[in-house]
Please model this.
Amino acid sequence: MPDSSIAVPLEDWIDPAALFATWIAHLPHAFWLDAGPDAAAGWSWLGIGEPDAERTVLATELARPGAPTADAGPFRGGWVGWCGYEPGAQAAGAPIDADELAPPSVWLRTERLIAFDHATRRAWAVSRGDERWADQVRERARVLPRNRELPEPAVREAVGRHEPDEYAVLIERCRDAIRDGDAYQLCLTTRFSVDGEVEPASVYLRLRNLTPSHHGGYIRSEEIALLSASPERFLEVGDGMVRTRPIKGTRPRGADAVADARLADELVTSEKERAENVMIVDLMRNDLSRVCAPGSVGVTDLLVVESYPAVHQLVSMVTGRLVDGTTVGGLLDAAFPAGSMTGAPKLSAMTILHRLEGGPRGIFAGAFGWVGHDGALDLAMVIRSIVVHHGGAYVGAGGGITWRSDAAAEVAEVGIKARGPLAALGAALPPGW
Model:
């Protein structure tokens, strides 16, 4: 679709967090795709939208080579939203349990947003057909408070879907399936839930402070909100190319520089973690080959350690050149749910996990982000995330199980991943995790 957006440069830099807290956070259908606190690179987008009940986003044709670029960034209007795990698993032929707490898919059609380029500290008011949008943004920016204090979170109790010893038994059932040849690797997950009304904006601001991420996100549609500090990009499309960056392998950060370096080295040299990562890379190569030109799919990064405030992660990247005419829906049919959240082979893994996990994943293990009118897109994995619903919230967490998995280490890894999101909710991990 031709780009008919208007991008008006704003005279001064605006703190996205301040504009979010005083304006965008209070709107019923709104989003913040967030490059993180104190970001020195990347883009953030704040905006408002309307639910796309027809999901026209899925029919959007993906960007072809030679698409023009603009100073105002790669996203100049389109859709922002999420797709949950179960619809993708069902479309692939796996059995599912429906999650009644939140809609499995929400896409907001957006034609008014603010784009922030953190590298140059420039901002634009971007709209399609709304000549007053830039003036509204300027008016809001003029009255921003200089200091903001987050309220202390209410103390909450988190309840796990599984006790730690139950989860350890499920790990052994995964190893049984691997021994029997039904899977090579399985991403076993669980859920932690809290009761009571949750104010999503303040929880998201705490989450981004506790676990900063380059792919943070706040997407709200009335009483349902996704709050994410995801470190994992799922799919990125631009100029005819698709990229995916699976993460498999996690270690906590060390208490000092020596311990930290030791943990990073332990991660990259672990036979189990390397095997797990390579298996998912191979699965993603196969998935992308379904929508990419023959011979164009390749691995550009393999087994790279990326470090975040709470964890080290083992990351790889697979790329390919898209076949002309591929749509958003076609790409998701080929690659979603992400192999890093299922295991391999994908359909067998999802079928086994449905039997073991004992409940739906919901929005967790899905994907969220933006799709542009021009067919570019950037979707991250819904991990390290909070789903706010009527009467409470939940946090999903899990890890990849291989034949070499140690149950105690896998239980501990789940705790590492869930601790930050639960703390943002004012809750501690249940005992044993």
User: Anything to note?
Assistant: Residues 6-146+158-428 form a domain with the Anthranilate synthase fold (CATH 3.60.120.10).
